Amino acid sequence: MRRLVVLLILIAAGAFAAPALASSSDDQFAEVRARVAEAGGLVDQAVAAAGAGDREQAYALARTAYLDHFELAEVPLRLRDPNLVLDLEFSFAEFRNAIQDGAPMSEIESSAAEIRAGLVDVDRTLADKGFAAPLLAFAFAFVILFREGVEVVLLLAILLGALSAGRASGYRKPLAVGVVAALAATALTWVLATAVLEIAPVQRELLEGITAVLAVAVLFVVSFWLVSRLDHKHWLEFMRARVASAIAAGSAAAFAGLGFTAVYREGFETVLFYQALSIFATGLGLYVALGFGTAAIALAAVAYMVLKLGRRIPVKPMLTAGAATLLLLSVTFAGNAVRSLQGADWVSITPVQSDTARLPIFLAELTGIHPTREGLTVQAVLLTVYILGAAWVFAIRPWRRRTAQAVGA
Predict the structure, then answer these.
(1) How far is the C-alpha of 100 from the C-alpha of 111, rounded, in Å?
(2) H-type alpha helices, 200-313
(3) CA–CA dist 234, 270 (Å, integer)
(4) Do 149 and 122 share a structural domain?
(5) Which contacts of 63-69 are long-range, i.e. CB under 8 A and separated by 24 or more positions?
(6) In this predicted model, what pLDDT tens digit does every residue of 354-370 receive, in sequence order?
(7) What value does the mean pLDDT take over residues 221-233?
(8) Long-range contacts: 236-240, Cβ < 8 Å, 24+?
């Protein structure tokens, strides 16, 4: 019963000690990327100077950021993404003009936010992906679909079993209609979510932060709900009660609704988690796709064994491992959410002067570890809550239950 505690600690150690797995080869663009990072710092200083009323100093800082720092990245960057170079040239020009022309601070800050986002894209374009970041992207993509899919398979197996036990097998067809409708709704949700993220009239960093915060909240609630129902008896009681209500209603629509809600809830969560992952796995789409494809194959095998062959699978270990991994993914999303909100100037920034907290960009975005006190604090608090919660659910509460039973006997 203590396995989840150990598993969380092991996954945390593996995911957040991942710099040791990063590629050991020298980054040929390390100096250029360092100058790009300095350009971002000078932009922040320029915004601060403009806010203090010293427009002359702000303009000088903005000019230095571009001419003495960003221009060093232009030659290697043009070979990889010339459009990115052009976009940033325009952004820097607008930033300098806004300062020089006495534009309001809101306009200057908006221009600075565009530059920061562009510099992150530059760092990502020039960085070496290494080994750990692709591995984490693959693992997270696999676990999201596989864990959610296994839950759907189990729910359907329980529903079908309850129908057979209640001699209501005739309602299998409307149940299947509900499942198919849920799959179609999930696909539509993905399309709509993608469109919203593309055309929403808000800052990209703010939208990314909101998406990540929502994903963290859902992961937190869903994972602890799942852990509380890991006992197979709880699953049976919960789903049998729903089938009994549908049978009492005596309509095909009730069973279609049962199938729809059982599947679409998982589908909606899957869309949300993949949308959040895709935001912070930019440049690692191949590994996310590989993780998704591998999970789909594994899930098809599990579905065939459970629904067609009627075989039992190790439900509790699989769902426990999946829940633990998704909880760690929420820690990643939390760190990235703070970073995105900082980029949108919604959260203050307190830099951490430590090489340990300064990871390669791909690894930083796949772990959510960024060198700011605010982000690291949020991640530490969330991880502590998970470890304490796991200790309570899998160690302390069972021990208290056994003790109470011993006293009662």
Answers:
(1) 13
(2) 204-228, 232-249, 252-280, 285-303
(3) 23
(4) no
(5) 63/96, 65/38, 65/39, 65/40, 65/92, 66/39, 66/92, 66/96, 69/35, 69/36, 69/38, 69/39, 69/42
(6) 767 678 778 888 899 98
(7) 63
(8) 236/158, 239/155, 239/158, 239/159, 239/162, 240/158, 240/162, 240/165
The total number of structural domains that make up the chain: 2
Q: Select from 109, 126, 143 the last residue of a domain.
A: 126
pTM: 0.73
Q: Considering 75, 97, 126, which residue would you say is the last residue of a domain?
A: 126
Separation CA 362–CA 312 (nearest Å)? 39
- CA 138, 143, 145, 149 torsion-angle sign: positive
- Residue written as tokens 């998970």? 386
In whole angstroms, what is the distance from residue 113 CA to residue 40 CA?
Answer: 10
CA distance 296 to 278: 18
Give the three-class secondary structure for 350.
Answer: coil
Torsion over CA: 192, 194, 197, 199 (sign): negative
Give residue 24's pLDDT band: very low, low, confident or very high (50, 70, 90).
Answer: very low
The range of the structural domain enclosing residue 79 comes to 26-126
Nearest to 139 by CA among 17, 255, 288, 360: 288
The 8 Å CB, 24+ separation contacts for 184-188 are 185/260, 185/264, 185/267, 186/263, 186/264, 186/267, 186/268, 186/270, 186/271
Contact yes or no for 105/67 (Cβ under 8 A)? no
As given in the structure block, the two tokens for residue 159 are 């529903």
How do residues 85-103 score in pLDDT, each as one tens digit? 888 888 999 999 999 999 9
Angle formed by the axes of helices 82-100 and 105-126, to 10°?
160
